[in-house]
Predict the 3D structure of the following.
Amino acid sequence: MRTKGKTMSLHNQKQRSSFKWMSVLVLALSMLSSCAVKDSADDELSAYLFAYFTGNGPGEEAIRFAVSLDGYNYRALNDNQPVVDSKEISTSGGVRDPHILRGADGKTFYMVATDLYVPEQGWNNFAMIMLKSTDLIHWESSVINIPETYPDELGDVHRVWAPQTIYDEATGKYMIYFSMKQGDNPDIIYYAYANKDFTGLEAAPKQLYFPPADSNTKACIDGDIIPFNGKYYLFHKAEDGDPGIKLAISDKLTEGYELVSDKRVDCQTRPVEGSGIFKLNNSDEYILMYDMYTSGRYQFTKSTDLQHFSVIDEEVSMNFHPRHGTVMPITGKELKRLVSQWGSFDDLLVEATSPELKKLNVDMKGDAKTIHLPVKTGVDLTAFDPKFKCWPGISVQPEGPQDFTGGPVAYTFTIAGKGDVVYSVTASEDHNPVLEGYHADPDILYSEKTGKYYIYPTTDGFDSWSGYYFNVFSSDNMVDWTEEGTILDLHKDVTWADRNAWAPCIVEKKVNGEYKYFYYFTAAQKIGVAVADDPTGPFTDSGKALIDFKTLGVNRGQEIDPDVFTDPKTGKTYLYWGNGYMAGAELNDDMISLNMKTLKQFNIDGTFREGTYVIYRNGTYYFMWSEDDTRSPNYKVRYGTTDSPMGTLTIPENNIVVQGDPETGIFATGHNSAIQVPGKDEWYLVYHRFTYPKGVDMPNGSGGFHREVCIDKLEFDADGHILEVKPTFKGIDPVK
């Protein structure tokens, strides 16, 4: 066994112990302004510490810390940089899969981690790391090389992965459990007791979990044990059957684990690993999180019985991208200590919480020391209070309402023990996005019946576009929008599909003198139609898919993204659709079936991806479409023209309608609709973008399902060409 018996400072800085410095620290910790969150008692569990690493590349295999006040929303400490030098505590230079535990005495902390540097070792390693601390800042560490320490029993081990620690009340010892691979045998979960000093193991590890006899691989990794209702619940990644997180339960800590089911307890169909389960403070609810390692995401789920979990991703936020880690509840005093040590002037643990803000769009730039506060319509900026909420250990001045009409306001933030930083704070009435929350693929309608505007979007923010219901929003002026509720729920209202509710469109028609509303929508990569008597419903589905087929020899793409258009010259109505191809056909008079004799595939160039939208102006039919993938920052809108609803398109040389603007940081502007103000040659473009400012930095293109709806003016030149729309934050003025 190789042991490093020295104490290391995780920030590698000299300790300052002068009476003056300590006095300042104590004073600063006590002087939390009214902006601060209401502190729980210092010794109560009132926050959370997340230990994690970030990836497989150089510098990413290192222990990092983040903190949370509620178990759902996490902020990285130390600018998301390591809090310990991997080269100081490992033999490989890389540290992965950190597990952190509060000791039985309540004040000692234990961490264990994988000693592995993937760029040099691949996935073969031989050691794990044991760490011990009394303050969460300074740690003593040891390295345990398994084949070197136990050559007779485990000399051929070549994978030692994801150790974790649990206190065994029966023995009064700390048990470490982890997976190992010997020779060509499958990965097995083993256990051993730590010695008294937590610097090594008492004896050679023994097998902890025995998969069922009918398991086809027996391979198990990433064990995670939690006591629950007098039993021990072992979550682990099993490779047999449908690989994923599975659950085994035992009455005893070190033996007798039986698999509950061969079904996954995680809520995914994609590969996952690295489960971490923890109990929320002052609650009977537990969170099971896991690493979606092929998707570049982390998923959070919640349960009260530890067997049935529901996804809570919409409630979770992180300003970092973790890999396999663990969460531990901490006290208010411990949180203050961590913030004082690793709080950052470039990434303040501060939130603007005023209900008058567009909170998703608050833009804090730590490098520039600026904060921009977009406010809702009608807010008085001569006396506006951002209501900054500071985390324990941080305070701010000034407090209360300030006048933002004369330019930036200087705010001084203080981190106890670190000093002050001044941020320049601005505020403005920004009309984009026009809808609160995540929405995409907007279709806009002006209703002659009501004299109001309506937006029918995709409900966004669901993992991989997995939403299942549609909402509608109304406005008198295209600036102030009111949510009118859910108009179609695939789980309740549609029998032929229950997933992927995308990209609707609508048309208002008079049928026998009465207004009718025909709503075309995507569900499960098919297109359906529902009908209502009012723009806000209720809508009744036709009972079957209108389009569930490929057209005219097409063997690519998807049957999605309908657009409905009524020709003002003839009164005929047409439906267009397609991803990877553009198809169109005339609708029959019933509006719920197609005249198949008119079916056509359009001559679009290689820029066409999806999202057709058609308008008519001054004798010309404009066809717009989206280029690239909605997950791409370069998602944009182009157009072509023709002389009839089913005509051959002419594509101008410069045909961009709207695209992202790197200067402002607005990206992925696409999947649009457009609206003409009744009786005027006045047009507006309605489109979606990545959520700003975070969307472009979301991992693996997940900004592509965290989108926002915007409106900007659409203009034409003297020859009828569309002038490229510049996407803005300001948006448009109220339309009369």
